[in-house]
Write a structure and sequence with these properties.
single chain, two-stranded antiparallel ribbon, 6 strands
């Protein structure tokens, strides 16, 4: 029999039966594994401060590299006084954007905080305050993370273009394709979000009076309907892109030249 959290009249928590006999926890299990694993890996990769660049590939976790201590400097905005991993100067933007994403909120609220874990299964929190108190007030910054993420995506495309520029001249390697696919997936994820949809048409009272914005809004709406699948694909893609650059830099695998 499936189990659920029950709260008795004294407020103590006990485990008891529920009417649900299906494995409702299977829906949140992939979220725990994938989202939790990505969080652990991205934190580990940022702390390494090594093996994030092998010409001409730069890991997306470190892009743009804005410290002069970088193995590959994109923009020398931060001097040598920065002694920590340069990933921390940038990684907070895409992680903030992804962490405050409407789709991911639903996912990790259910999987990690059990609020609620599934239909007909009781919430773990004793009270519900929504996103009106700290630390959940930060969720309201999603639109601003969206604007910053556009800048990061632009640099990822620049990195993808530089991935054609080998020390020996123009070429195409497996890493080139990896960075191109990563930039494309992150672009689709960024521009399919609710904030982008609102920017395109949310402020209009009558969409028919602005046919161009209406058309753009309809296109973004179509992408937004698949935002969940796009979110997972882009998250896995950026993790694999960093892993590929790291393994090539460490000499564990060899980057194959296609052209």
């Amino acid at each position: 029999m499936a189990i659920r959290w029950l709260r008795d009249q004294r407020g103590s928590v006990a485990i008891g039966p529920t009417l649900r006999r299906d494995p409702w926890w299977l829906e949140i299990l992939p979220t725990i594994v994938l989202l939790g694993g990505f969080g652990i890996y991205s934190t580990w990769a940022a702390l390494q401060n090594a093996h994030y660049f092998v010409a001409p590939y730069l890991s997306p976790f470190y892009s743009p590299c804005i410290s002069t201590t970088c193995a590959h400097v994109t923009l020398p905005l931060i001097g040598t006084w920065w002694t920590l991993s340069p990933a921390f100067l940038i990684l907070w933007i895409p992680l903030g954007f992804r962490g405050t994403c409407y789709y991911y909120r639903k996912s990790y609220y259910r999987a990690f905080f059990w609020a609620p874990p599934a239909c007909a299964v009781q919430d773990r929190p004793k009270t519900y305050t929504g996103e009106t108190r700290a630390p959940w007030l930060i969720q309201n910054l999603h639109r601003y993370f969206f604007y910053l993420s556009i800048v990061v995506v632009a640099f990822l495309w620049w990195d993808a273009l530089l991935a054609f520029r080998f020390p020996s001249g123009f070429g195409v390697g497996v890493g080139t394709v990896v960075l191109l696919v990563n930039a494309a997936l992150l672009s689709i994820y960024t521009f399919s979000c609710h904030s982008c949809r609102h920017v395109c048409g949310g402020a209009l009272d009558t969409l028919s009076r602005s046919p161009r914005r209406h058309g753009l809004w309809k296109f973004i709406t179509g992408l937004n309907e698949r935002h969940g699948a796009i979110a997972w694909a882009s998250m896995i893609g950026v993790g694999l892109a960093d892993l590929y650059v790291r393994l090539v830099s460490m000499g564990i695998i060899t980057d194959l030249r296609i052209l």
